[in-house]
């Protein structure tokens, strides 16, 4: 007769599928971070146990959750120490915390900095689970932020009957992805804090392997939260996607004609079209002409 597994081996049985999911192309250091994050959940890191440290291999991870002005919201701070390797071995790696409060899970995103520090802001009190993902390697720079790939997360939601995916980036914008029906394009909605509107870049690799570039304008509104929605044609939940800091009209020129035209064509609702119309008045003349011409062509097409 086979003996019951010990608590330690039972935990390892829970870890193995998740560790395998990050694949062989990820560094050993990243793999150890993944293990530490799963260890936080197994050890019960939560609003009820808001301070915890875990270690494995060459890494130490300390986690602390501090209640904000609203006791139902927390700032979560991670500090990772590499005992035998370079301090910046995890720089740029993304960490998500998933908080399920209403049956719909939102992921909050933080990026590990050069000193191994990552912070999540305003996370709701809930049962927290953590995950990690590596940069896509497509581009680098302080203005680019890789978003967590959708497929692995969506599979878990689909089992519960859901078909939505959402992540909140460090700047506070909510990226919510949905699909109206089978075979239809995915719809991305971006909801911004009132003081952080702008023109947001989005890049994604489609089902045909080709990268697509969009600009998504979000303008201030009199009431409610500023938001825009776009169709992501050929979007694949199995492929990487990226966003970044907002761009200014001064950074755009005639060389961006194709991106501007594709972006206007991707607009999904009146608010997004209205945001493009507002840009015509303040854009440099050559850019304003491109925007206006594409808006007029869209109206003519019905």
General description of the model:
With 302 residues, this protein is α+β, with helices and mostly antiparallel strands. It has helices spanning 7-20, 28-43, 151-159, 257-266, 270-282, 285-300; strands at 51-56, 59-67, 73-82, 94-100, 105-111, 117-124, 127-133, 144-147, 164-168, 174-178, 186-191, 198-205, 211-218, 227-232, 241-244. The protein has two domains: 1-134, no CATH class; 143-302, no CATH class. It is 26% helix and 33% strand. Helix 4 runs parallel beside helix 6. The chain starts with 6 loop residues before the first helix and ends with a helix.
Give a brief rundown of this model.
The protein is built from six helices and 15 strands.
List strands and helices in order, with pairings:
Layout: H1 7-20, H2 28-43, E1 51-56, E2 59-67, E3 73-82, E4 94-100, E5 105-111, E6 117-124, E7 127-133, E8 144-147, H3 151-159, E9 164-168, E10 174-178, E11 186-191, E12 198-205, E13 211-218, E14 227-232, E15 241-244, H4 257-266, H5 270-282, H6 285-300
Helix pairs in contact: 1-2, 4-6, 5-6
Number of helices: 6
Strands ordered across the widest β-sheet: 7-4-5-9-10-11-14
Oligomer: single chain
DSSP strand count? 15
Unreliable sequence segments: 1-25, 153-162
Largest sheet: 7 strands, mixed
Helix content: 25-40%
Gyration radius, rounded: 21 Å
Order of helices and strands: HHEEEEEEEEHEEEEEEEHHH
Total of domains:
2
How far do the termini sit from each other?
Answer: 72 Å
Average of pLDDT: 82
- From the spread of the alpha carbons, the general shape counts as elongated
Measured by DSSP, the beta-strand proportion falls in 25-35%
Could you say which structural class the secondary elements and strand pairing correspond to? alpha+beta
